[in-house]
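subagent[fold] <- orchestrator: predict structure for attached chain, return tokens only, no commentary.
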Amino acid sequence: MRKLPKLFWACSAIFVVVIAVALFVRHARPGPGGTEIDVPGVKAPPVAESEVKELQKKRAREIAEKKLIADVELRLEKFNGDLSALVEKYRKMLPLSRADEYFQQSVEGGSFIASKEGLCGFKCCVSLAYKMAYDKIKDTDRTGEAIEPLVKEKISAPIEKAIGVYAKWSEDYKRELQKAAQVFALDIAARGQKFSEEVMLLSEADAKAASAAIDKFVGEVESHASEAVIAMVEAGVEMALIKTSYETIKKLVIAIATKALESSAARIGTAAAAGAGTAVADGPLPIGDAIGAIIVVGGLAWTAYEIYNVTKKMPDEMRDQIIVDIRKTRSALMTTAQDNLEKDREACLTFAKNQTNTIVASLKGNKK
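subagent[fold] -> orchestrator:
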């Protein structure tokens, strides 16, 4: 028998191996009744469709809340920037040139009062000394009554006009603040309304509660926004400043005149008490040249000399003091104006923050 070639045996061996591998793979697959070998691990139980929907609703509500909070906070930041721009706009207007023109008029009025044509001429000083003596005897206020009209006309009236210019400036500023605050409040209300419409589509109970809280806030803003904003800024102090300025300068003028003429007034009063000038005690107040005649006839020539010296010294003191007080009034007005810029801005910003906090509190309240 002939020997088979080596190639034949090699091919036979390969064929046997292939058949063996095929049979192994066939038997390893599970048949209809077979069982797969599980990979080690834990499988999650099946999730109900209703649970999936509830999770989706909860997620949708959370996203809507976060978006609303982000929106109102962003709007608050913009509002703060708007207020800062308004403050800067009105700050650049200071000092108000028209008001300074009126203050200059009051300075000129003060110079007039301190001149010979005003209260520091000889005849006027004699008249004031006479009135001071009369006031002391009769317990009246003829001196003040004589000085007041001149102070009102020459000093107080221009100052009042200057303060009026600042009052108008302040009124315009507050009106712009109020308008910006009203727009902010209504804008926040609109965003809240949109949020309510979104979450009302969800059947979830806490979503409806959140919507109800926001709706209440929206209603309050729409009903009371104007009143709330108007009340947030205080009334101006302009009228009080006018009165204070007038009273201060009037008292100043009277005090300077009284101090300068007190010696002469005392002499006139003494002469009247001695009967040398009965007109002082009983008659009407003399005017013009009649006053000088009473002094000379009454033997008060020395008083006339004193008054003459007063007319040389009193004008400078009176003018300087009046100008100092006018400048104090202007400075106080400028300070008040600048302070009110920040004070009213803070009032508006506080109002806006309260609106934002109300939204956030309404949302957080539904999670307690």
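orchestrator: received. Logging for downstream: The two ends are 101 Å apart (CA to CA). The chain has a mean pLDDT of 77.
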